[in-house]
Design brief:
The complex is a heterotrimer. Chain A is mostly helical. In chain A, 74% of the residues lie in helices and 2% in strands. The longest helix of chain A is centred in the middle third of the chain and has 32 residues, at 159-190. The chains are: A mainly alpha, B mainly alpha, C mainly alpha.
Chain lengths: 496, 169, 119
C-alpha cells in the first residue's frame, strides 16, 4: 500500500458519506445542461427535473439513514446529524422549487440557471453540515454563498434586486475573508484542518496559554463568518435589503437553508470539536443572542413592507437560535435541530403566501407583487384559505401553541434554563411577547379590516401543495413534538 | 542575502499597499496592487513556497488585477474622488481596524512560535514543503475530495457570471 | 536554497536586458527625421483624441471572468502534471472528474454563445 491510497475502492474511502451531496450536485448539472437544449415551451419541465433531483438525494439519505461513514481521509462524515440536516435542506429546497414553479414563470425568470443554482446551493449547505474538515466546510459555504449572491440578483432589470445582490456579495466576501483567516489560524495552531485534530489539540485543558490565545483568535474569526450567515446582530446589515430585493422564493430559501447550514456548521465546530472553549464562546454568544433578538423584534414592529418585516423577524429567530447555541450541551443543540425543522415550515410558509399574493385588477400595476402590509387588509374575505394559512404561520412564528413555533421556543428556552442561563431565557420570552404584536397585526389586518387594495392569490397547484405541506408540518410539529424531538436528540447524540 | 531580500520585499509590499489605498485614481491603485502582489510573491519564494509564489503571479497579479481594471473601465466613473469620499470618522475606524489586525498578527506569530518551538517550525517549513510536487501530493491524496469540490465551486462561478451579465437570447 | 533560483534570476535579467537593449540601440542607431504624423502616438489612422478611459462593453468583463476560472483550473494542473506518474490511474480519474465538471461549464458557455463576439 503506498501513500497515494492506490487500489482502494471508492466505497472503502467512505464514498457513502458524499453520496447525497454528489447526487444533488449532479442533478444541478443535469438541470443546467437540459435547459440548454429545451425549447421555450418545454421550460415548464425544469422545476420537476429539479424536484426529481431533490427526491433522488432524499432517497439516498433515507437509504443511508442508519449508516455511519467518514469519507476521504476525514473530509466529510455521514451520521445521523448530517442526515438530519440533509433532509432539512432537501425539504426546504423541494418546497421552494414547488413555490417557484409558478412564481418564476410569472416573473419571467423561468430559466435553467435558477433551478440549477438552487440545487448547487443546497449541495453547498449539505457540505457545510456534513464536513468534518475546515477546507471542506469552507468550500461548502462558498458554493452556497455564490449561488445565493447570484440568485438574489436574479431580477436583473430591477435596481432593488441588483442592490440586494451587491450588498450581500460585498459583505459576504468580507465575512468569508474573516472565516478564512480563522481557518488559517486553526491550521497554524494544530497543524491540521480536520475537526478531529482540533478536538485533539484543544480538547484537553492542558494546552499552553499562548496556544489558547491562538484558538480564541481563530474562534472569534470563525464566529464572525458564521454569525454573518446566520444574520445575527451586528452582522445583519445586509439582511433587510437583501431579503427585500431578492425574488421572494429566494428570500424564503435564504432564510431557511443558509441559516440552518450555519447552525449545523457551528454545532460541528464549536459544539463537538471545541467544547473546551465553550465558556469563552458562550459569553460572546450570550451578548449576540440578546442584541439579535431584541433588535430584530423591535425594528420589525416599524416595518411596512412584509418582506422587510419577515427579514427582521428572521433576524429575531437567529437570536433564538443563538440562545440555544449559548445553552450548548446536548439539550441546547438538539433544540437547535428542532427549531430549524419548525422554522423551515413556518418561514417557508409565510414567504410562500407572500409569493402567491398579487395585486388585483384595477390598479396601474395589476399583477405585481403585493408587498405592502396594508395589502393584506381583508384578505380573509377574498381568499379565506390563503389568509388561514398565513394566520397559522404567524401564530407559529410568534410561538403560540398548538404550533411548531411554540415547541421550538419551548425546547430552546428550557435548554437555556437547564444550562443555568435563566436571564437569557427570560429575555427570550419577553422578546417573544414583543413579537406577538407585529405577527398578530397581520392576522388582525386579514380578518378584521376591510380590503383597501384588491389582491388576488395565485392558483398555482404546485404552490398550493407546498403551502399545504407547510401548514401540515407546522401543525404536526405542534401536536406531536415528542417524536421529532427524539429524532433531534438522536441526531445530536451521533456527533458527541 | 535572504534577510536583505526579505527586507526589500517587505518594504516594497508595504509601500505599494499604502499606495493602493491612497491613490485617487483607481487605475493607479490597481497598478500598485500588481507591485504589492509581486513583492508578496517574492516573500513566498523566500519561505520556500514556490508553488504559491507562482500562483500569486499567474492568478492574482495576472488575472485578478486585469479583472479589477475591467471593472474600473466598465463603470467608467469620470471623477472617482467624488465617489470615494470618506469622512474623518471612517478614516479613524479604518486605522483602528488596521491596528487591531496588526496586534493580532504579531500575537499570533509570537504565540505560534513559542508554542510550537523553533525545531518544529523548521521541520514544517523545510525545503520540500512548498514545492509543486509536495503541494500535488497533498492535493491529490489527502485533499482529493476537496479538490473535486473546487470544480463544483468553479462551475457555480461560471454559471453565476453568465447569469448576471449575459443578455437574454 | 535560494541559489536554486539563480538560473531564474539570470533569465529575468537577460529578458529585461534584451528588452532595454533593443529600445536603447534603436534610439541610438536609428536615423530621426520627425514629421507631425510620425510624432503622433499610434500612427494607425485613428485620431488619438479623447479620454483614454472610454467605457468598455460588458462583454470584455465576462471574458475576463471566464478566463479567471479556467486560469485557476490550469493552476490545478501544474501540481498534478509533475507527479502524474506517481499518481497513476487514481490521479488520472481524479483529474477526469474535475475536468468533467468544468466541461459542463464549458458546454454551458458554448451553448450560451459567450464565445461568440458578434451578438
Amino acid at each position: 500500500m503506498n501513500e497515494y491510497a492506490l487500489g482502494q475502492g471508492l466505497w472503502e474511502m467512505g464514498f457513502a458519506a458524499a453520496v447525497p451531496f454528489t447526487l444533488v450536485a449532479l442533478s444541478a448539472m443535469a438541470v443546467l445542461l437540459a435547459d440548454l437544449w429545451l425549447l421555450p415551451s418545454q421550460k415548464r419541465a425544469l422545476p420537476w427535473a429539479a424536484l426529481a433531483g431533490v427526491l433522488l438525494s432524499a432517497a439516498s439519505v433515507a437509504f443511508l439513514w442508519n449508516e455511519e461513514a467518514t469519507g476521504f481521509g476525514g473530509a466529510i462524515r455521514l451520521d445521523r446529524f448530517s442526515a438530519f440536516f440533509a433532509m432539512v435542506f432537501l425539504l426546504g429546497t423541494g418546497l421552494v422549487v414547488l413555490l417557484s414553479s409558478a412564481y418564476a414563470r410569472r416573473e419571467g425568470v423561468e430559466r435553467g440557471e435558477y433551478y440549477a443554482l438552487l440545487l448547487f446551493g443546497t449541495s453547498g449547505a449539505m457540505l457545510m453540515a456534513s464536513a468534518v474538515e475546515l477546507v471542506t466546510f469552507f468550500l461548502g459555504l462558498e458554493i452556497l454563498s455564490v449561488s445565493l449572491y447570484v440568485l438574489s440578483g436574479f431580477f436583473r432589470q430591477r435596481p432593488a434586486s441588483a442592490e440586494a445582490a451587491a450588498k450581500y456579495f460585498i459583505l459576504g466576501a468580507f465575512a468569508s475573508a474573516f472565516l478564512l483567516y480563522g481557518i488559517a489560524l486553526f491550521y497554524g495552531a494544530s497543524g491540521s484542518t480536520t475537526y478531529a485534530a482540533l478536538r485533539e489539540s484543544f480538547g484537553s485543558a492542558a494546552f499552553p496559554y499562548s496556544h489558547g490565545l491562538l484558538a480564541l483568535a481563530a474562534s472569534g474569526l470563525l464566529l464572525i463568518g458564521l454569525a454573518f450567515k446566520l444574520g445575527a446582530v451586528p452582522f445583519h446589515m445586509w439582511v433587510p435589503d437583501t431579503y427585500e430585493g431578492a425574488p421572494t422564493t429566494i428570500t424564503a430559501y435564504m432564510s431557511v437553508v443558509s441559516k440552518a447550514a450555519a447552525a449545523a456548521a457551528f454545532i460541528r465546530v464549536f459544539g463537538a470539536s471545541l467544547s473546551s472553549l465553550q465558556q469563552d464562546t458562550s459569553a460572546v454568544l450570550w451578548v449576540l443572542a440578546v442584541v439579535t433578538m431584541t433588535l430584530g423584534n423591535v425594528v420589525a414592529i416599524a416595518q411596512t413592507n412584509i418582506k422587510r418585516m419577515l427579514a427582521y423577524s428572521s433576524i429575531a429567530h437567529a437570536g433564538y437560535l443563538l440562545v440555544a447555541l449559548t445553552a450548548a450541551g446536548e439539550a441546547g443543540y438538539s433544540s437547535v435541530l428542532f427549531y430549524v425543522l419548525a422554522y423551515v415550515f413556518m418561514t417557508l410558509g409565510a414567504f410562500g403566501v407572500v409569493s402567491l399574493v398579487r395585486k388585483g385588477e384595477g390598479g396601474a400595476d395589476a399583477g405585481a407583487e403585493a408587498l405592502d402590509i396594508s395589502h393584506y387588509s381583508g384578505l380573509a374575505g377574498r381568499h379565506g384559505l390563503l389568509a388561514a394559512a398565513m394566520a397559522v404561520f404567524m401564530v407559529s412564528l410568534s410561538g403560540i401553541p398548538p404550533t411548531a413555533g411554540f415547541f421550538a421556543k419551548f425546547y430552546v428556552f428550557s435548554a437555556a434554563v437547564r444550562a443555568g442561563e435563566v436571564g437569557l431565557a427570560i429575555i427570550g420570552v419577553l422578546n417573544s411577547l414583543v413579537s406577538v404584536y407585529f405577527y398578530m397585526r397581520i392576522v388582525f389586518l386579514m380578518y378584521m379590516k376591510e380590503e383597501t387594495v384588491p389582491v388576488r392569490g395565485s392558483r398555482s397547484r404546485a404552490g398550493w401543495v407546498a403551502l399545504a405541506a407547510c401548514v401540515l408540518g407546522t401543525l404536526l410539529l405542534g401536536v406531536l413534538p415528542s417524536s421529532f424531538a427524539r429524532l433531534a436528540t438522536e441526531s445530536i447524540a451521533s456527533i458527541f | 542575502m535572504t534577510t536583505l531580500l526579505f527586507v526589500l520585499g517587505s518594504i516594497a509590499a508595504i509601500v505599494s499597499a499604502l499606495s493602493v489605498v491612497t491613490r485617487r485614481n483607481p487605475v493607479h491603485s490597481a497598478l500598485s496592487l500588481i507591485v504589492c502582489l509581486l513583492s508578496v510573491a517574492l516573500l513566498f519564494l523566500l519561505l520556500g513556497a514556490q508553488f504559491v509564489a507562482a500562483i500569486q503571479v499567474i492568478v492574482y497579479a495576472g488575472a485578478i488585477v486585469v479583472l479589477f481594471l475591467f471593472v474600473v473601465m466598465l463603470l467608467n466613473v469620470k471623477d472617482e474622488s467624488a465617489v470615494f469620499h470618506s469622512g474623518i470618522a471612517q478614516k479613524l475606524a479604518a486605522l483602528a481596524l488596521v491596528f487591531v489586525i496588526l496586534v493580532q498578527v504579531v500575537l499570533v506569530a509570537v504565540a505560534g512560535a513559542t508554542w510550537l518551538g523553533k525545531e518544529q517550525w523548521l521541520a514544517a517549513t523545510g525545503l520540500s514543503f512548498g514545492t509543486v510536487q509536495s503541494v500535488g501530493r497533498e492535493l491529490f491524496a489527502r485533499y482529493l475530495f476537496q479538490f473535486e469540490v473546487v470544480s463544483v465551486l468553479l462551475l457555480v462561478a461560471i454559471v453565476g457570471a453568465v447569469t448576471l451579465v449575459k443578455k437574454k437570447q | 536554497m535560494l541559489l536554486a533560483y539563480l538560473p531564474i534570476l539570470i533569465w529575468i535579467l537577460l529578458c529585461a536586458g534584451l528588452a532595454l537593449a533593443i529600445v536603447f540601440l534603436s534610439h541610438v542607431l536609428g536615423r530621426k527625421r520627425p514629421t507631425g504624423a510620425k510624432l503622433s502616438p499610434y500612427e494607425c489612422g485613428i485620431t488619438p483624441v479623447g479620454d483614454a478611459r472610454s467605457r468598455f462593453p460588458i462583454k470584455f468583463y465576462i471574458i475576463a471572468v471566464v478566463f479567471l476560472v479556467f486560469d485557476i483550473e490550469a493552476a490545478f494542473l501544474y501540481p498534478w502534471a509533475v507527479i502524474y506518474k506517481k499518481l497513476a490511474l487514481v490521479g488520472l480519474l481524479e483529474m477526469a472528474v474535475f475536468m468533467a465538471v468544468l466541461l459542463v461549464g464549458y458546454l454551458y458557455l458554448w451553448k450560451k454563445r459567450v464565445f461568440d463576439w458578434e451578438d
